[in-house]
Design brief:
The structure is a homotetramer.
Chain A: E1 5-10, H1 15-25, E2 30-37, H2 46-49, H3 60-63, E3 68-69, E4 80-83, H4 87-99, E5 103-106, E6 119-120, H5 130-141, E7 149-153, H6 156-172, E8 175-184, H7 197-200, H8 211-222, E9 225-226, E10 233-234, E11 242-249, E12 256-264, H9 273-282, H10 286-289, E13 300-302, H11 311-314, E14 323-330, E15 336-342, H12 350-362
Helix pairs in contact in A: 1-12, 6-8
Chain lengths: ~375, ~375, ~375, ~375
């Protein structure tokens, strides 16, 4: 067995951090080598610092690790840093790691809109990683030490949306309009305190702060192209892609369900329903092609049963890295509509982070 | 206290029938005088025939009523017949009552699309009742005995949708496009067996058989005008109003939440967000104006809090006869979007039936 | 209509305080006249200070009341003070009100175990109020001004337990052993943050901090007698009554379900199952006898259906002031077992407070 | 890899049958070779006959198997028959398989109380299998063909109860009294229709037909000894062990939580709390010792956190074959109390069946 790369986890006691640690415990490429959290937790054994809330047990190899403060000097030797930090703290901490030369893969929203930072759903736009690959190669060619860089994981509800849109855009040309209504799981809201039970039992909360704006904006970055000079992105304009999102919280533990309608830009060659379905079935992403250990067998599963996908039944396909698409049908206003299900803490958060790191390793920049 | 009118209830042991009986027990205009059910239940006391599943107790005055078969001869003397029959049985039974001269207000879908039958949400299109009023008056003027007639209650998810659309259409002209995604309560699925627990716990079911088609079609009848001769309706065409619906079942006991986007037909005078909001706030329906006992104080409540309406908190406004509208905002694809909450078994089913009957009484045809 | 008495509410923005205000808005004897909360809320209109989480709307008459700090000088003229304060703050604040001569009815646990303070479930041991009545009468007879006093509401899960035990003890003599396992609603955990959604969805939490000890201790005070001098209580010893409690949180919004087994002390005349059932059916409490406005018609409902009581169907009997008992049967270890359902925020909290105040008014000490 | 044994599954389309097929798909000893169901399903491919409701996908190797009628002639060559049949059908069908010489491991209740049939929780009383082992060996020694036999899986809630009681009884002598209150998952109720959503959302159902009687009786067979002649069991009498059960259904998908109090028979040497805890921690069952592939690493996990075990967090320990025990403490009426969590469809149903078969294979009688 080859020696594993070392990973650091920032925000290790939070909900995203816990998920990173759980996924790393099953990962064949990375080890959770250093765990960082607030100064309140630093110095304690991880098992004493964390209130473990995952449905699998705390991995034995992480139990006794001593939690460190989130400072670069404690993470020396880590090939990659996964950040599950809250947005409140992520900004300066992640910057300090990038400045110290680390490769940071972050679930926080802070740097997603920075032009030079790739915003990546790894089964969708792994080609965006070329921007940081170019930067590293350029430094190497100049004999400079490897520069630090940041890659951002997308918002969880955005991830579910763009996975099926990508192959459609690739095959049938740009998508002009997307209307999406989400029914999102409570695990996306974290633990402290997360969604109160009284708000979610026998209820729907038709609002998630900031979420709709994230979906409407991030989709335009994820679905765009790397620019000509290879150091940034040709962000789609509102005239190229308009997304309208309505976000709701429902009584589901894991798995975001999204009802999506869309219309293609090219009106003279709108594909048939069968062509759309086939396109989704045929899709294979770069992470799968390259053989990344966490890559799903299929990035997309197209379900033909009339009442699928359902979170309880479909969220764990390919360990949560696959997205399920069902109820594909024509739409009387747009071109088509469908229901998309994605695992919000895997492909929508920590899992994407790990698959991004596996891609970065394949591309030789870790 | 004036003497109450007598009401018969068909399908009295089912979920809609139970709700009719509960609402009638609190109604000042109608008494549940005759209860009809299948021959299996006929002859038993109601309390022995029913598996009562309401959150209020079985009303004392109905407990000992002997259940009758659903045949007109057992309902003589009833001013109105409320039908909570399953569609499987409703067709011939309701016809036999209409043929026998009864006024039938039905929750079943069987006659909703018959051109001469009004399909009514009582806080929306009570003017459609004129078609049956005209028929009765004509018979009277000809010295004929009062003819039977049928009025249909709309589908529950359609009811929530059309309530806010009606005042908008009245004030700002026709609506061209409506996209709606629903999150529907399980009480709408009835009891036998209804939605299984294992399908709804920690889950969303993205499909309700026939529901999307009902929403897309019924809205065009409810929002149309009575025809020139007063004996039918000028159904809206697909070119006048296009509705696209996506229907989901969620873990909510009562209350359908709907995310709605819409676009007006008239592009030269699209109202502002404030005008839309004011229009909804100002709306007062005929049932309220006429002083129908069950009419809501306001057919629509506009909520300004960012995270409302919510089923658990808002479904019982004005005893479930009011619809709550929140999250009104501009839509980057359509004109506006909003979240609508309606009580599916009150304004979406039995409650509408009773308010329709109160309107028919006011209009002098019971 | 007679003029209402004035009530003050301490902790008015919290979950218990909100319930007090809701119940007072429907009460014919008391008005919510002064609302007290933390200094952070003081000075604001109530509707601006509160995050209202009740399923009925914020009562109109309370919306614009200016929130006061919890100091006696702001509550002058109030006949009674209802305290919904957190235990963290209740101690000195309630003491300052008692010292200032107010009648305080508190939901906090702080003074429950003080020997001279009655711990009352109003449909169970209203005779314990004699201790404060005696104190007031004595002061009056001595020409002194009316002294302040405190009455404590019991813990919510204790309330459900003792209601059926009281008539059994009255009729068949002391109860020696009680084993109880609870399945408690999340509304009992308050709002900030209360039970997190992720802890309660598809889950049971087999622990509620301090709850089992409260049940095991409080039952011995509530079920005891006033002492010979009328100024305190002959607390039951562990040898007289032993309670063993196991407390769980389940996914229910309102309503505590408790599985109870018990054994009588007197072994020579253990009643039959029918006698036990009849005793519970026959029970009528003093609050009902005196005609207190909030008193239930029956303090106990005995249900014969095999699968009742259920929280969703039975919690609102007599507006939540009645307790439902079902599944009465012999127990092979104890004498009998049963399932008891009580509304935890009505008879288990704020509702009991209001009914206690109505009893105090009837007894002439407000 | 050794050749797997062939397993037949009766009732393959039902909820227990589905779980058998899922577990067999991951089992290294048995293959699901023949699938039996009703004549309505017979002749179809399994994937067309079943409404698959498991959270893992239908195993590929079972999809295209042609469903057979439940007749022995279609199962020739199977080493073991797993029955997930409903009690309504299980009686004569299972008998026909035993008569035809098959080893039948059944989840149905029909033969559990037959004196010669072992009722087995495989991590508890695997020694009861000696009764059928003896029968087979005797036949062999007489040169007779291998006789068919039946082994019954216990009721799901009984399984959770007896696992921790067994080591306590082994070490500290007989247990005299057990009081247990259950909070049971809905997956135990099957699919058709199972527990209706409206009964379980925001609710507790304090009744499961027949369940309490099963717990009170089955525990006395499972915890008893094989008789002196090795062909049956010395069932415990009511005077030796008295169990009082109160069973409830709660809103949990998988995992039964049980609050258990118990008292030992021997009063002169009652163990300490620490001794009880250590005894549970030290327990290792025969299935683990023998290296059965499905055996848990530990039959019992003792949790020290005050709020554990919880179904969502602990039900999958050792793939659902382990039972979790928490909240161990002294009981003021009995000796001790604890909370026990077991996976009702694994150790409480199909999983136990498979582990029983693995034990039978180790003992040489398949």
């Amino acid at each position: 067995m080859p020696i594993k790369m070392k990973a650091g986890v920032l925000g290790a006691t939070g909900s995203v951090g816990q998920r990173f640690i759980l996924l790393l415990s099953e990962n064949e490429q990375f080890d959770a080598a250093v765990l960082g959290a607030s100064s309140r937790s630093a110095g304690k054994k991880y098992q004493d610092a964390v209130v473990w809330k995952q449905t699998s047990l705390l991995p034995g190899e992480s139990k006794d690790l001593i939690v460190q403060e989130c400072k670069p000097e404690f993470f020396i030797g880590c090939n990659v840093i996964f950040s599950g930090l809250d947005a409140e703290y992520a900004g300066p901490i992640e910057k300090s790691f990038v400045d110290a030369g680390f490769a940071v893969v972050s679930n926080a929203k802070n740097y997603r809109r920075v032009p030079s930072v790739p915003l990546v759903v790894p089964t969708v736009n792994s080609e965006h990683l070329e921007v940081v690959v170019n930067r590293v190669k350029q430094a190497r060619s100049q004999g400079l030490s490897k520069p630090g860089f940041e890659v951002c994981i997308s918002n969880c509800s955005t991830a579910g949306l763009v996975v099926p849109l990508k192959p459609l855009q690739d095959k049938f040309g740009p998508i002009r309009f997307v209307a999406v209504t989400t029914m999102q799981a409570i695990s996306g809201a974290g633990f402290s305190p997360g969604t109160p039970g009284i708000d979610i039992l026998d209820n729907v909360v038709p609002y998630i702060s900031g979420e709709e704006d994230k979906m409407e904006w991030e989709a335009k970055k994820i679905l765009c192209s790397v620019n000509g000079t290879g150091d940034g992105f040709d962000l789609l304009s509102d005239d190229q892609l308009t997304v309208s999102a309505q976000c709701n919280r429902v009584a589901v533990s894991d798995g975001h369900t999204e009802c999506v309608s869309w219309k293609f830009t090219n009106r003279d060659k709108v594909p048939s329903l069968e062509e759309v379905k086939q396109c989704l079935k045929d899709y294979s992403c770069e992470a799968t092609e390259l053989g990344c250990p966490s890559a799903p067998k299929h990035a997309i599963y197209v379900l033909d049963e009339p009442d699928r996908p359902q979170p309880r039944l479909d969220r764990n396909r390919d360990r949560g890295y696959a997205v399920s698409v069902g109820r594909l049908r024509e739409d009387p206003i747009f071109d088509f509509k469908m229901t998309v299900l994605s695992h919000n803490t895997i492909i929508g958060a920590a899992g994407s982070g790990i698959l991004i790191a596996e891609l970065l390793a394949k591309k030789g920049v870790l």
